[in-house]
Amino acid sequence: MQQHVLIHLSEADYLEMEADSPVRHEFVGRLTYPMAGASVRHNRIALNLASRLLAKAPRTCQVLIGDVKLKADAWPTYYYPDVMLVCDPDDNDPLIKTRPCLLAEVLSPGTEAIDRREKLTAYQRLPSLREYLLIAQDEMRVELYRRLNLRDWVLEIHSPGDVLKLACLDLELPIEVLYDGLDNIA
Fold this sequence. Notes:
The protein has 3 helices and 13 strands; from the N terminus they run H-E-E-H-E-E-E-E-E-E-H-E-E-E-E-E. The protein has a single domain (38-179), classed as tt1808, chain A (Alpha-Beta Complex). 22% of the residues lie in helices and 30% in strands. Strand 12 and strand 13 form a beta hairpin. The protein has helices at residues 11-20, 40-56, 112-124, and strands spanning 25-28, 31-34, 62-65, 69-73, 77-79, 83-86, 96-97, 102-106, 131-135, 142-147, 153-158, 163-166, 171-174. With 186 residues, the protein is an alpha+beta fold. Strands 3-6-8-9-10-11 form a 6-stranded mixed β-sheet, with helices on both faces. Strands 5-4-7 form a 3-stranded mixed β-sheet, covered by helices on one side. A two-stranded antiparallel sheet has the order 1-2. It is globular, with a radius of gyration of 16 Å.
């Protein structure tokens, strides 16, 4: 059984620790949580999405993967989304983003429950966020949470043959594209 030491820190202490740490940590409720490494499948799916977003995004937008912190709410809470699209020119801190229009998490057995509940709730509080993707690794399945207004969201579930319509970039993306190159990866 693997155990992790949870450390109570202030926001300033967390940011200082994280700047020098060889291991990334998410920060929720003044507790730090070390992040596990990703599988090759996980990484490939995130890169497939990021590359498609990057190809379509105007130069004023930033497509970011895995290593850039997102300050998710006023608790404070910091996460490292798998893929983040930021198009707000005022969101210009080089280490921490606060105004993404799209976030994506590739589901892993160890993080799926957190991605579906904790992160979904925190991400939906971001006024700038328009879309949140949950991408399965073990089957072609994408869940898209789309903001309807300040309070309401709708869930779309996509399977093979479906096309994701991402309003944040006016991008249509067949979900099969997210799974390109996974045929020989366990």
